[in-house]
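Appendix B, record 7
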Amino acid sequence: MIKVAVVGALGKMGSEVVKMTVNNPDFQLVCAIDKNNIGVNLIEDIAIEGDIELAITKSKPDVVVDFTQPSTIFENIKKYIKLKTKSVIGTTGLSDNQIAEIKTLSKENNTGIIIAPNFSIGAILMMKFAREASKYFSNAEIIEYHHNQKKDAPSGTSIKTAQLMIESNSNFKQGNCLETETIKGARGGEFIQNEKGHIQIHSVRMPGFVASQEVIFGADGQVLKIHHDTINRECYMSGVALAIENVFKNNNFIYGLENIL
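Structure tokens (predicted):
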């Protein structure tokens, strides 16, 4: 039985993680943490707690699952490492420098961490297919769609997709003319990593969407589109469960669910 704590337990993703944990016979929910409704019972014997360090120290979970806010996630992760508690991180918005520091701290403290921009198996396959297609196309752009309550842009999934694409192709603007934006931002944001990539990422924020992404490849006389739609948040739960099971058994730092499939 793996003892699980959920941070951000009342949020849209956190509440799904709570439900999945309670219904999984291999997991035991031992702690629920949120900034709202502190002291209110979430389920029998599990009340919402507000202080992360006190709650984890008291409940001693094997794994913490965090779906909170980009503004707090970096400090949260450092608390988990300080407490020698393994974690699964679904909150996006971490910078490359922060991820590098977390990786170092994870190794120094021998504490497993999985950071996954996306837990949907279909989305992971979309990223894998995009990486493969990148070998054969010289131009590509990404359009990602999310609900209008998502606070970071572009999404962690689109950034991770671009990073994987760059592994196969260093320049996606071959043959482009010199552009002028008459409205700032019309061409989206240009993703460049280590002076490679040059992939335009466009972020749409609108009611009605959960999460969708389209990777568009172009070449003379043809266009290839790889598209994935998330219909509801339940689709992420098999990936979250897989991450919990993996990090429970290992002390590695892992960025991206594709690395444990």
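Remarks on this record: The domain at 121-230 is CATH 3.30.360.10 (Dihydrodipicolinate Reductase; domain 2). The chain has two domains: 2-115+233-259, 121-230.
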